[in-house]
Design a protein that fits this description.
This protein has 574 residues and is an alpha/beta fold. Helix content is 61%, strand content 11%.
Length: 574
């Protein structure tokens, strides 16, 4: 960048003396340029006519190489910044609990991850280099102008402080509207994300027009903000054009009344003033990149600084694998003012199947969140082999559990990689073994590429039962001490439920398992069933014992089995 500034100054310096030499037919000599030739060298007219163009070409080559190096290294610099920012956003978001993530609009987060980071990358690529490069070029050209005639140069440069106030006002206005525009763009992205996720519902209710009206409202706000920003963005170069013309006119007017300036110095001075215009205009242009990057950077760091995953306690230790007991003692948890668990005490026997059932809102899924440390109990303790999990590291607590949820969470990669997520170092033989136990190997082998078949977004090419069996295979591959099934069959049709239940009947015996279920027919063989209502255990026992008590479990069983007996029978058969 120093080379760029020096070569630009050399252009201006050489221009006046070269022109005088050519117009005088060489009789005037090289003037001040001759001072920089090695001592004792005298050039003929013919030699000079060759050397001057070669010198200008050499300066051009050096300047071109300097540009190449600058853009190459600044491109790498911008890439490293964008990669680092996106990596930090991904790490921060992937460490958040589901309840923390639910407070973020996913479309807005994606906008910050993509367009906001791209704005910062653009500024790193162009603005940083331009500030240094163009700043050095301007400094070199100002030095040449002052050397030629300091009075004229300083008079021309008076426009700089004059421009300061309006440019500062325009920049502040541009920053304000750019912030607003980026926020509106995040709202548009959030609506698009919501709309894509609910496209079936939107079409089913013929709600496209209503969604379009809502989109148009968000789009109009974004357009209004960016239009105002466009006026401010165009104001800066317009102002620069006017001030540059004033400066050049001032130089010409000054020299008209001052005959002390030699023609070659006047021409070099004018060349310097003209050459100053382009880097000054470039600085104004990339200043807009900087404004965009500042607004985007604020949104990125508001995201990074505003959400943090709960850290481990000081001195937290890693838990060994569960061996003897898993117990909850007096656990309380609330969502705001709504209590989810109220003094829950519960023990999961090792090697046994424990089921949790009850009305919606009874606290069943909250218990899963607490066990996997997505949230912490507000009161009470969770003990693994007598150790309070609050004093253990998050990773070691989660390693105790393998989770299968009601939503079959698959990624748009191959079957193999979807199962291997639970244990990335697992061999293909280990993956196949887990799939066989989950009764998934047969249908996987029938896919076009077997275990290498891409499953599409969220497992689009698979049926509900196939997706859940892949999730079960993933949980088995993890080889965790406790298998947690959080309503794993609640979203399945009867046929898919039978497929998954058949796989579970092979998997669950002899394992420590926690089964959270809405359909009671899926947990009749559990060793121990706890009925949760209002955040408390209100009944416990086996299926037969609970039916004989005639309490809440018996009422729920009657409600479910009477109108849907065939479904319940299918669940027991699976």
């Amino acid at each position: 960048m120093i080379a760029l500034g020096a070569t630009t100054g050399a252009y201006a310096f050489l221009t006046g003396h070269a022109l005088r030499f050519l117009l005088s037919g060489g009789s005037s000599g090289l003037g001040a340029v001759a001072k920089y030739l090695p001592h004792g060298i005298r050039l003929s007219l013919g030699d000079t006519l060759w050397l001057l163009p070669l010198a200008i070409v050499a300066i051009g080559v050096l300047k071109g190489l300097a540009y190449l190096g600058q853009f190459y290294w600044m491109g790498i610099f911008g890439q490293k910044i964008s990669i680092a920012l996106r990596r930090e956003i991904f790490i921060r978001l992937s460490g958040l609990s589901p309840s923390q993530l639910s407070q973020q609009m996913s479309g807005d987060v994606l906008s910050r991850f993509s367009s906001d980071v791209a704005a910062v990358e653009t500024a790193a690529n162009y603005a940083v280099g331009s500030y240094v490069r163009d700043g050095l070029q301007i400094a070199a050209l100002v030095a040449v102008a002052i050397w030629m005639n300091w009075r004229i140069a300083l008079a021309a440069l008076l426009v700089v402080p004059i421009a300061g106030f309006p440019v500062a006002r325009l920049t502040r206005f541009l920053l304000s509207k750019t912030r607003e525009g980026q926020a509106r763009l995040g709202q548009l992205a959030a609506q698009l994300k919501e709309g894509l996720g609910a496209v079936r519902m939107i079409q089913a209710f013929n709600a496209q027009k209503a969604e379009l009206i809502r989109f148009a409202a968000h789009s109009a706000k974004h357009e209004r903000a960016m239009t105002r920003a466009g006026w401010a963005r165009g104001g800066t170069p317009a102002l620069m054009e006017v001030l540059a013309a004033i400066a050049l006119a001032g130089v010409l007017a000054f020299t008209a009344y001052d005959s002390s300036v030699s023609p070659e110095n006047l021409f070099s001075l004018l060349t310097a003033m003209v050459l100053i215009y382009q880097p000054a205009k470039d600085l104004g242009r990339v200043g807009q990149f900087t404004v965009q990057a500042v607004a985007s950077g604020e949104r990125i760091f508001a995201l990074l600084d505003g959400i943090r995953s709960p850290p481990d306690r000081p001195g937290a230790t890693a838990l060994p694998a569960l061996r003897a007991s898993l117990r909850l003692e007096g656990v309380w948890f609330s969502y705001g003012d709504r209590p989810a668990l109220q003094g829950l005490t519960l023990e999961l026997p090792i090697g046994k199947i424990t089921a949790l059932v009850g009305p919606s809102g009874g606290g069943k899924s909250t218990l899963t969140s607490l066990l996997l440390r997505f949230d912490r109990p507000q009161r009470g303790r969770i003990l693994i082999d007598g150790v309070d999990v609050d004093s253990a590291t998050v990773d070691s607590v989660r390693a105790q559990f393998a989770l299968v949820t009601q939503d079959a969470l698959l990624f748009s990669t191959s079957v193999l990689e979807n199962i291997r997520i639970a244990r990335p170092e697992a061999s293909e033989q280990d993956v196949v073994a887990a799939a066989k136990v989950a009764q998934a190997d047969e249908f996987i082998q029938s896919l076009p590429k077997g275990y290498q078949t891409p499953v599409g977004e969220r497992g689009a090419i698979l049926s509900g039962g196939q997706k859940q069996r892949l999730c079960l295979a993933r949980a088995l591959l993890a080889n965790a001490p406790v298998l947690v099934l959080d309503e794993a069959t609640s979203h399945l049709d009867p046929e898919s439920e039978r497929e998954v239940q058949a796989a579970l009947n092979q998997v669950l015996p002899g394992r420590t398992a926690l089964v959270i279920a809405h359909r009671l027919s899926t947990i009749v063989d559990a060793d121990r069933i706890h009925v949760l209502d209002g955040g408390r255990v209100v009944e416990s026992g086996s299926h037969e014992e609970l039916l004989s008590q005639g309490g809440l479990y018996a009422r729920l069983w009657t409600l479910q089995s009477a109108p849907a007996g065939s479904s319940g029978g299918g669940g027991r058969e699976g």
